[in-house]
Write a structure and sequence with these properties.
This protein has about 500 residues and is an alpha+beta fold. It contains 16 helices and eleven strands. The chain has three domains: about 180 residues, no CATH class; about 140 residues; about 90 residues, no CATH class. Helix content is about 55%, strand content about 10%. The strands form four sheets. Strands 1-2-3 form a three-stranded antiparallel sheet, with no helix packed on it. The chain has a three-stranded antiparallel sheet with strand order 4-5-8, covered by helices on one side. It has a three-stranded antiparallel sheet with strand order 9-11-10. A hairpin with a 5-residue loop joins β4 and β5. The protein is extended.
């Protein structure tokens, strides 16, 4: 029998009395852990919706809305630009409205915007997500690492507009995979799509076609990232081996996909023409639109591939062989001092004060020199490593229960404070609670203190019909028999929030 031994520094498996290294590195497990990490922000949406004061989110499935938002951003992405946030919200609102039919249009728009902001992670510094996972290294030691990723990112366009793009992690969330090879996944999707169409399973074929489109978008993102890094700094991209290999493989990929998609498009047209069921005709028409969109994206990608090497040569000439910029220095003597000397003192005072204030300011500026500003703006962002940096092992302490009151205490307190159409003083309730249990008066006193300023709006949102209300009597609680509770005496009663005849 195997007996696992848990330790903080090294994971081992004990077999009988022999202790051997039983854990080996597992890359497949790491990929699955990262896949789960990328779905965590979607799952957090449903757990966080209960904390929204402006929304009763019980009717909304936020994870489904999040997937719909990522889908809309991915489909709207182009090679040069991305998706407009307002258009994404407008396209998501019908899906939100289906879940909350009786809610207002303003609430639908607000829910869609909240989900979009949550996927962008608005409110954080780098607008990224972090998850901790564990792995076993080559030495058999279990280490914890941090995985940094983003789902939706905001970028600025040439005209200054802000648009959204879906990252590789977000696309992998849509297709249900992570760290997969783009080319092999695309080929598998095309073969699966062709097989499903020939068998007439158009519903499954639509899902396979959408996954094939996501893989096409992902390949275009890889090329766009390479060209964007080249525009910033040609030295940041390996144009000796890595970039030419990417371009050659992408060209072969597009050639194969054009052939496959053209054949698949003919099969879809035959299935659409031969189908007698209107639902099958509609599914076939949707498939035609998806495959045509894939072919359009392949054509756009082919154009970029043909321009990639020319762009590299142009950027190399611009960055490495261009003359340094020439800046004309100001002639302080001829352009400033001599004209100032010819002016009266009253007229010369203002330009002199402006010159010395600008040149010798009282506080050091945030960016000292122009060179440091240019270096900061042109700095290549560091890509997160596949494994991430190692996290220290936490020192865990035993969990000690601090619950003073049991479930029985809460039930007895609820019975005592059920004061519908009844008014009682806190002193009477404390005396009665002391006879039942010695700890019960403290709980009754706490609940009575909360009743002095109840949260009425929160109780209405939760669907409560009555709320406990406390008013001071002006007297003090008696010292004897109060169960350790001191302070002012209160008059307690349950107030109806809605009419009892009103349905929930």
């Amino acid at each position: 029998m195997l007996y696992p031994v848990i330790c903080t520094r090294r994971c081992r498996v004990q077999i009988g009395n022999d202790e051997r290294d039983g854990a080996v590195p597992d890359d497949g497990l790491i990929r699955r852990l990262k896949a789960l990490a990328c779905t965590a922000p979607l799952n957090d949406l449903d757990s966080r919706k209960s904390y929204l004061e402006w929304l009763d989110g019980s009717v909304y499935q936020m994870a489904e809305i999040g997937l719909h938002v990522i889908d809309q951003v991915t489909i709207a992405m182009d090679f040069d630009a991305g998706a407009d946030a307002e258009q994404v919200i407008a396209r998501t609102m019908p899906f939100v409205a289906v879940q909350g039919l009786r809610r207002s249009r303003e609430e639908h728009a607000r829910v869609a915007r909240w989900v979009l902001d949550s996927l962008i992670n608005v409110g954080t510094v780098d607008r990224g997500f972090q998850r901790v996972y564990g792995e076993v290294d080559a030495a058999g030691v279990y280490v914890r690492r941090r995985f940094d990723f983003k789902l939706l990112v905001e970028l600025s366009g040439a005209a200054g507009e802000i648009y959204l793009r879906a990252t590789d992690e977000a696309i992998n969330v849509l297709v249900g995979a992570l760290d997969t090879d783009i080319e092999s996944a695309q080929v598998a999707a095309e073969v699966k799509l062709d097989h499903l169409i020939k068998r007439g399973r158009l519903a499954d074929a639509k899902l396979a076609a959408e996954q094939a489109r996501y893989r096409t978008i992902q390949l275009g993102e890889a090329l766009r990232t390479t060209l964007e890094a080249t525009r910033r700094d040609v030295r940041a991209v390996d144009w000796d081996e890595a970039a030419p290999a990417l371009l050659d493989s992408a060209l072969d990929h597009i050639q194969d996909r054009f052939t496959a998609e053209d054949a698949i498009l003919r099969h879809i047209a035959d299935a659409r023409d031969e189908a007698t069921d209107p639902r099958h005709k509609r599914q076939a028409a949707d498939l035609v639109a998806i495959v045509e969109d894939c072919m359009r994206r392949h054509s756009q990608l082919l154009l970029r591939l043909q321009q990639a090497r020319a762009l590299f040569r142009a950027e190399q000439d611009r960055q490495l062989f261009a003359d340094p910029p020439r800046r004309e220095a100001a002639d302080l003597y001829g352009q400033f001092l001599r004209p100032i000397m010819d002016l009266p003192v009253a007229d010369a005072y203002e330009p002199l004060e402006a010159y010395f204030r600008a040149s010798t300011g009282l506080a050091r500026p945030t960016v000292v020199t122009v060179n440091s500003l240019v270096d900061l703006l042109l700095r290549i962002p560091s890509e997160p490593s596949d494994l991430g940096r190692e996290l220290p092992d936490p020192e865990l302490v035993p969990v000690v229960s601090t619950n003073r009151f049991s479930d029985g205490h809460w039930q007895m307190a609820e019975r005592l404070l059920d004061l519908r159409d009844v008014t009682r003083s806190l002193s009477e309730l404390l005396a009665e609670a002391a006879e039942l249990d010695e700890d019960l008066p403290a709980l009754v006193g706490l609940l009575a203190g909360h009743a002095y300023a109840p949260e009425i709006s929160s109780a209405i949102r939760r669907g409560r019909r009555h709320i406990l209300l406390a008013l001071p009597t002006g007297d003090s609680l008696p010292q004897a028999g109060a169960g350790g509770v001191h302070g002012d005496d209160l008059m307690l009663s349950a107030v109806a929030l809605v009419d009892d005849s009103t349905p929930t």
